[in-house]
Amino acid sequence: MVYLFVDSSGFGGIESHIQQLALLIQSRDVEVEVVYFRRYPGHPQYQQLTDNHIPFRFLSDSPSIRFFRSLSQDDVVHAHGYKASIMARFYRLLAPFRLISSFHAGESLTGRLAFYERLNAYTAFLSYNLAVSLPILKRQPFRCELLRNFVLSKSPLSAKKRHSTLQVGFVGRLSMEKGIDRFVTLSREHRQCQFHVFGDGDLANLVSDEPALEWHGAVTSMDPHWQCLDILLIPSRAEGLPMAALEAMANGVIVLATRVGDLPELLSDDCLVNESQWQRLSLLINEMGSLNKKAWMEKSYELQQRIIEQYSGESRWAQLSRIYLLS
């Protein structure tokens, strides 16, 4: 059995990764269960797991030690995030299960979160470690393997037509690291386009009263919304390998981004600008908007093909099964 362990109060990049991971494991006829540290009322992922027939449980419903002590050497616990990883390492001292820990945080943390992330890093000698991007990998003090984010491929491929009015989106946490302030600035420069924001966070005040934006708030899933977008804009100051970029490309949405994290590995140069020159994203919006119908559809198809060849769950399974000791 593979247990995906996380402490999660909302839906973001880690939760999207866990969703894709659980679906991939399930598709290979391997038993999988998502284990939450505690229950958060209204969490959108609970219904998503239910709809996909993926079992889940909450450690807060009974003593945590009872769950971990029940595991055998054939069981795998794959922890995500600092809290789940630190806790699982402690219990690994009491039971013989195989422990995998994934590092997801691409941004520089401060205060209490920075302390916990350092504790996570310096206790990592107690687990087999994975990082979702090369920059995150290079920061780890102990042995760590690169396992880039992925999405289950969609087939058959279909080139996505653009809207008559260009639809530009931001997906993620409304924070300085993700560059929501930059997105707002860019939206003011392109009144000919319609700008959308999907997400919530500390800087929600920047978008709540912005007339040029349509703010959708935090959504339970982007699946029904990708068809409404032509471009996903990622003006981030720091990233790992954002799941939103992979999902957008898998749905034929063009991604324009700053050159941070593993985005240069994912995107071609004509879709990237240096982080310090983020204003040049405005030029890329104009360039993409000027593409004719044929060129646009070719670009959309190219992005989908790249996901299938290099960032699909199918392309990751051999590595995962080796890490989990399933083969």
Which key features would you list for this structure?
Rossmann fold; globular; alpha/beta; 6-stranded parallel sheet; 7-stranded parallel sheet; 2 domains; 13 helices; 327 residues; 13 strands
Per DSSP, what share of the residues sits in E-state strands of 2 or more residues? 15-25%
Radius of gyration: 20 Å
- Return the string of H and E elements: EHEHEHEHEHEHEEHEHEEHEHEHHH
Low-confidence stretches: none
Q: What do we call the CATH topology of the largest domain?
A: Rossmann fold
Task: Give the quaternary arrangement of the chains.
Answer: single chain
How much helix, percentage-wise, in residues? 25-40%
Number of separate strands: 13
Strand order of the largest sheet: 3-2-1-4-5-6-7
- The outline comes out as globular
> Mean pLDDT across all residues, rounded?
93
State the secondary-structure class: alpha/beta
Number of helices: 13
Measure the end-to-end span: 14 Å
Examine the secondary-structure arrangement and name the CATH architecture of the largest domain: 3-Layer(aba) Sandwich
Please give the largest β-sheet.
Answer: 7 strands, parallel
CATH superfamily of the largest domain: Glycogen Phosphorylase B
Tally the structural domains: 2
Q: Please write the CATH class name of the largest domain.
A: Alpha Beta
Keywords: Transferase
Pfam families: Glyco_trans_1_4, Glyco_transf_4
InterPro entries: Glyco_trans_4-like_N
Protein name: Glycosyltransferase SypH
